[in-house]
Design brief:
61% of the residues lie in helices and 4% in strands. It has 203 residues and is mainly α. The chain has a two-stranded antiparallel ribbon. Helix 1 runs antiparallel to helix 2. The protein starts with 7 loop residues before the first strand and ends with a strand. It binds protoporphyrin IX containing FE.
């Protein structure tokens, strides 16, 4: 006898959110490639072009962030990033052990609560630690020529470069973890599909 289809669908990702996610993903990946070329780790565009395009992508990201901050503030969607420790231990246990035993996922997303506790904490850390590190060091790097006028003579360029590179490695670690987590839904691509269509499948 055929089993009944137990798939349920919930609409969790709105249009702007999906646009923001994919545009930001493309820009961040491009910033990593061009940044690590400036750093000397990869060779793709040539140093000069990498510097030019890294700066252009940085300004594009600023523009995107202005819209994203406005959208989160006006729609109340910022609430999805408030950390919670409800079911936190179950989540850790699930990803360390349960997932390999095909246990059911301890969290069910809804439109009102779309991020599990691990996602909430990770995104918040990216927002309050990794992003400011990259942004502040990036701005200082960008305006190196103005440091004297701003009275920042005592600031060493090597420290700004080290902070920016450390931020880039943290971002790389986030992207790798995020890509792995994205494949752990009901099927390998179901969560990626959800970020394209907005509809999350629950089994
Ligand atoms: C995910 C975002 C980003 C990543 C992964 C990233 C990565 C990098 C890396 C690895 C370098 C080379 C550092 C070195 O070897 O000293 C670099 C250079 C640089 N980055 Fe970024 N970056 C990002 C965002 C930004 C932002 C938002 C800005 C500006 C607001 C920025 C401005 C710069 C500048 C000005 C340089 C130096 C270019 C030069 O040599 O003239 N970056 N970036």
């Amino acid at each position: 006898m055929a089993l009944p289809d137990m798939t349920e669908r919930v609409y969790v990702f709105k249009g702007f959110e999906r646009f923001w996610h994919w545009t930001q993903a493309a820009l961040v990946i491009f910033m990593m490639l061009s940044g690590f070329e400036i750093h000397g780790s990869v060779r793709l565009l040539g140093f000069e072009r990498a510097v030019q395009l890294h700066t252009l992508a940085a300004w594009s990201l600023v523009g995107l962030w202005v819209f994203a901050v406005f959208w989160h503030a006006t729609t109340g969607e910022w609430r999805h990033y408030i950390p919670t420790f409800d079911k936190f231990r179950q989540m850790l246990r699930y990803y360390a052990w349960g997932i390999f035993q095909h246990e059911p996922h301890p969290f069910r997303p809804t439109a009102a609560n779309k991020h599990n506790p691990l996602q909430r904490l990770t995104y918040l850390l990216v927002l309050v630690l990794v992003s400011p590190l990259i942004w502040i060091s990036g701005w200082l790097y960008l305006f190196y020529g103005d440091w004297a006028a701003w009275g920042l003579n005592s600031l060493g360029l090597e420290w700004v470069a080290a902070a920016h590179t450390a931020g880039a490695y943290l971002m790389l670690a986030f992207v790798i973890t995020h890509l792995y987590m994205a494949t752990t839904g009901p099927t390998l691509l179901s969560q990626t599909r959800a970020m394209v269509t907005g509809w999350e499948e629950l089994h």
